[in-house]
Amino acid sequence: MADASSAVHGGQVYAYARQTGLPEAEALAQVLDFSASINAVTPIIDWPNLLQTIQQRLPHYPDQQAVTLKQSLGARFELDADAIALTHGITAAIHDFFAAQRPAKVVLMTPLYGEYLKAAQRFAGEVIELPLQAADSPSALLAHPTFQNLPANSWVVLVNPSTPQGHFSSPQAWLPFLSHLKTQQAGLLVDEAFLPFIGFEAKHSFRQFLTEFNNLLIFQSLTKYYTCPSARLGAVFGDPELLQARFDNGWPVSVFDEQYLLQALADPTLEARTRDWLHSAKPEFIAALQTLAVVEKIYPSDANYLLLKLTRPVADIQAKLQPQGMLIRDCQSFGLDACHARIAIKLPAENARLIAALCQLEASPCC
Ligand SMILES: Cc1ncc(COP(=O)(O)O)c(C=O)c1O
């Protein structure tokens, strides 16, 4: 059984409750979960209205075409509804896509979300893991032997901004690479789970290339930005024919997920509130982390999380933080060593609690 500290996924609050013997409701109320990078600014939801709508709709099957939700997502992400497929979360989409597509070869730009490796190992003919450094230019990658003579139906996977570092790579720089893949009848799958934290403008996203490239798929997790990892709901953007062939799977969303997201998408304040929070909380958090003796390095991040190199194994730190109800993410499932941790940026008072707890681990200048 996954325990709260060493699991492949962050967000192990229920495992934490079982380990500590805390009732779930108490654990959910008390735990400060820095291990899952979820928006600390929650959408404004009219809960009585939401519950009433769900109650009314529950005895009926949901709209199989999810027309209203696709229109709303289309407006937010500037896409036609037929370029959007809905899935039971992106984790499920990763497995569903590889299971249906059966790629001849998958090239994973690492480190990346561990589910890609699991799915590729299960369903692809060959899997290559290619370490990608922030300094690597996509045009230089073109000359890499891995990308010469790819078999048709090969897929390259890129997470942008990257996890766990949070490095954002400009989509424009990848255009020649995308064209090269197309000439090889290969595809590019770009995971933009955390891109909304950088911005919704098309220039930040590979969405701008969708009309030109039918060998491009974008996996857009919705659970992080809209603060709803319990709603298993994600969106895939791509060529309508490819989406229909690979993601046409009955009823993709439950009425709860659909109605929650419709309200969250309609919150006109969410984008500005999220931007304001991140712009002030992030530099303040980084400045405080820099004073800690236990933090050896903070990687530059464009996203809503920070990759830290600690002076001690993450497991030691987790053992000290867990009794205080704080969880951080060990990065070994990303292929990094035992001293790397990823922490979410949360509200200033919550970040301050983590700083105070880390301060107590050893005498450090901020104490
Ligand atoms: C980069 C990345 N992509 C996709 C996912 C999947 O998210 P979800 O299944 O909640 O949509 C995660 C989850 O942590 C992630 O880190």
Tag the structure with descriptive keywords.
2 domains, seven-stranded mixed beta sheet, 13 helices, 16% strand, disordered C terminus
Condensed summary:
The chain has 367 residues and is of the alpha/beta class. 36% of the residues lie in helices and 16% in strands.
Summarize the SSE layout with pairings:
Blueprint lengths: L12 H8 L3 H7 L1 E2 L13 H11 L9 H11 L6 E4 L2 H12 L3 E6 L4 H9 L2 E6 L6 H4 L12 E6 L15 H9 L3 E5 L24 E6 L12 E5 L1 H8 L7 H12 L3 H21 L4 E4 L6 E6 L3 H8 L4 E2 L1 E2 L9 E5 L3 H12 L8
Parallel strand pairs: 1-11, 3-4, 3-5, 5-6, 6-7
Antiparallel strand pairs: 2-8, 7-8, 9-10, 10-13, 12-13
Bound molecules: pyridoxal-5'-phosphate.
CATH secondary-structure class of the largest domain:
Alpha Beta
Number of domains: 2
- Helical/strand content category: alpha/beta
Sheet with most strands: strand arrangement: 2-8-7-6-5-3-4
How much helix is in the residues?
A: 25-40%
Describe, in plain words, how this protein is organized in 3D.
The chain is globular. The chain is of the alpha/beta class and 367 residues long. The protein has helices spanning 13-20, 24-30, 47-57, 67-77, 90-101, 115-123, 138-141, 175-183, 240-247, 255-266, 270-290, 314-321, 348-359, and strands at residues 32-33, 84-87, 105-110, 126-131, 154-159, 187-191, 216-221, 234-238, 295-298, 305-310, 326-327, 329-330, 340-344. Helix 4 (67-77) packs parallel to helix 10 (255-266) and helix 5 (90-101) packs parallel to helix 6 (115-123). Strands 2-8-7-6-5-3-4 form a 7-stranded mixed β-sheet, with helices on both faces. The protein has a 4-stranded antiparallel β-sheet with strand order 9-10-13-12, covered by helices on one side. Strands 1-11 form a two-stranded parallel ribbon.
